[in-house]
Amino acid sequence: MARPGSLHERDISDSARSIQTAIVRIEAALADDAAAGVMARDPRRDDDRLDALRLAGWVAGVTLLLIFLLGILAYADVWFD
Description:
The protein has 81 residues and is mostly helical. It has 2 domains: 1-40; 42-81. It is built from 2 helices and no strands. The chain has helices at residues 7-36, 43-80. The chain is elongated, with a radius of gyration of 29 Å.
């Protein structure tokens, strides 16, 4: 346990102050961005991203299905050969 006023305790309190200062700066920057309208989102961009994710999901699903079917065909070829 650190003694009150020890170097270790001062390092911890300095670190805590640094973290608090960083949090205050981040909050101020976010408030400035929100006031400037930077945080406004375009819903069309979200739709485009969702469409891209859906397409990627379909491509991944079809690819896995083809791999599965090719695996069955390869197993059947070995089994019945």
